[in-house]
Amino acid sequence: MTEHLKQGRVANEIAHGKLLAKGHTEAIWGWGSPAGQQRATKRAAKITSAAKLAPGQHVLEIGCGSGMFTRLFAASGAKITANDVSPDLIELAKKANPGVKFICAPFEDLPTTGRYDAVIGSSVLHHLDLDAALQKSIELLSPGGRLAFAEPNMLNPQIFAERTFLRDKLDYVSPDETAFVRWSLAKTLAEHGYVDIHITPFDWLHPAVPTGLIKPVEAIGRILEWLPGIREFSGSLLITCRTTEAK
Within 13 Å of residue 243, how many CA atoms lie on the same side as its CB? Predict the structure, then answer.
């Protein structure tokens, strides 16, 4: 990624963060409704488990946004350092997480003087230049350190529409964000040297589902997540892998 393209992407994300911070950020992202809160809890639990978060670990959360997931990750007992490029969203995150260290900077510019046991995030890799982000993560991870993210699935019809022909009509979609197809993403992870790669489709609960239907929709969703073919259209991908151990 050239410096010009990087600066353009950073400027777009900062402007988008300012727009989000002016509204009810969680509601804009779909996390504010009862179904959205249920989705967030499930997603955070999956990332926490995939990254093996636990007391004694030092973990970097990238793309922390307003800090909602930061709070859920911190419940694991791990020491969380949280990063975002948006100063407006970082201010919201600090208020919600007074005990967490925050770094406001482009992820690619973070210093590599320290190493982390895990690099994690919710819906953030698809905002970044993927190759640059994966390389930076290797530089920041300890040998055997884990990468764990939940990201939008491009094969989901709504996600595909948002990232293609509806992009210009939706203010919650930033100019540079995309989504992933799990097979090509797995290949890219392997090319960067990650091992033990697992990418699992999940998430069939839409934020607009009424409270009384959350449990039955979740039950149906768990079945769909196991059905070959059908599961490929799930809303999200759980991505987990690790760096190689030191020789």
Answer: 20
Query: 104 forms bridges with which residues in the sheet?
Result: 84
Tokens of 242: 């690790």
CB 1 within 8 A of CB 7: no
d(CA 142, CA 179): 27
Tell me the pTM.
Answer: 0.94
Cβ 81 vs Cβ 104: under 8 Å: no
pLDDT tens track, the chain, 247 positions: 677 677 888 998 998 888 888 877 787 788 999 999 999 999 999 999 999 999 999 999 999 999 999 999 999 999 999 999 999 999 999 999 998 999 999 999 999 888 999 999 999 999 999 999 999 999 999 999 999 999 999 999 999 999 999 988 888 888 889 999 999 999 999 999 999 999 999 999 999 999 999 999 999 999 999 999 999 999 999 999 999 985 4
d(C-alpha 141, C-alpha 74), whole Å: 19
Residue with tokens 């793309």: 63
Q: Which of 162, 164, 232 lies closest to 204, judged by CA? A: 232
Place of tokens 């670990």: 57
82, 100 Cβ separation under 8 angstroms: yes
Distance separating alpha carbons of residues 189 and 242, to the nearest angstrom? 10
Domains in the chain with CATH codes: 3-242 (3.40.50.150)
Across the chain, where does the E strand assignment appear? 58-62, 79-84, 101-104, 116-122, 141-152, 195-202, 236-242
